[in-house]
Amino acid sequence: MRILPRPRAFGALGALAVAAAMLSACVAAPGASADPSPSADPAPSSPAATASPTASPTATTIACPTPLPLDPATGAMVTTVDALAALGEAAAAACYGDAKLEVRGLVPPFGGGTSAYTWTPAWLASGGAFSIHGSRDPLAPYLWVNLPPSFGACSGDPHAKGCPGGQVGTWVQVVGHYNDPAAATCVATPVPDFYPPAPPMSPADAQLTCARQFVADSVDPYVATGPLPSVDPGLCPVDPVTVDQIVAGTKSIGDQYGLGCLGAKVLTFDAYVVPGVGLLSGMEQTTVDPRWLADSLNTGAVLASDATAAGDATHWLVVRTPPDVPDDYQAHACDGSAVDPTSCVFAPYVGKYVTVTGHYDDPESAMCREVVAAGDDPLLDPDALILYCREQLVVDSVAAASGPEPSATPPTTSTATRP
Fold this sequence. Notes:
Layout: E1 33-34, E2 62-63, E3 70-71, E4 76-78, H1 81-87, H2 89-96, E5 101-106, E6 117-120, H3 122-125, E7 130-133, E8 142-145, H4 153-156, E9 171-177, E10 187-190, H5 203-211, E11 215-221, H6 243-253, H7 256-262, E12 267-273, E13 288-289, H8 291-294, E14 301-304, E15 317-319, E16 353-359, E17 369-370, H9 382-390, E18 394-400
């Protein structure tokens, strides 16, 4: 995601040291390098594999990442779309060889592009892939995922209904690899009448291009981000869930109330949009990503059960609005970052009643992180930050609703401080 450079301090979470479970060794040792010369095997089977980033005779040294944590459930090394995009296809293929990698991402509402070449095999490098983003930000880095023949009809059309690439707006967990053995058979033929004309490609360069493609072993829905907090079921809300129930439970139990009781269940409730708060950015405290979800004071909107309750901050319910609500990737931001604040999805309903659908335990919580400037030490416990993001109520949709007419002009406030 785009990173805000201003240094801030995250007041909601403390700085606790955590130890991540790491592999004893990566495909390349920390700080090690791979020499991606064009003479390398285009479909290597060793984790120390190399590839050429430029198909140039000049060798380039790649600094490979530190060892990655291992997911015991999949046997794959866990990384991120952002990390692979920062490396680039050539460096990632050189650093990881054909090792299994696990990434999570959001399927965007667009497919692949066109190629100046006809590729054989077509599934590996001819634009038959779909992409995933590391966040809802349309400008966030992305990763192309190729589906081999083992995916059946989806391999030929990954964007078809029911196929991974066709699940627009859903989060997926992909286990895959670079340097697929099929790369050794790759051939690229220039497309006739393509403009500008593509030059002939040698078999070695075609194989090298294919070796750099990320190939899926499995693609599964990604929903849960971890175990739910333990909450006494007798204290949880009953259907239909209301703003007052959520506010009261959070007061008595804490921020874990909504997550522990409701998990990722889709909620539908009526609410009153409190004027004067929620449409402006709160105090920026630390550099955290994604800002719309992780910043402790930036909010999507502040809701109350009715206009009377709106006058008392202890009755407020803070909700988060992702940048793709109501339209995919239109960045209708409600945290003050939008060029036009009126583009916020709640803006037309300020001082009015709405029907809201939303959920806790948003999949993007797994991507919440502190952005640490070079030379600085991290302030936050990574696990605590992810839990904090999971505890936020995320909006799926907003629509006008009928409600009791306020008996007087509702009070306005000028602070965006959370209750």
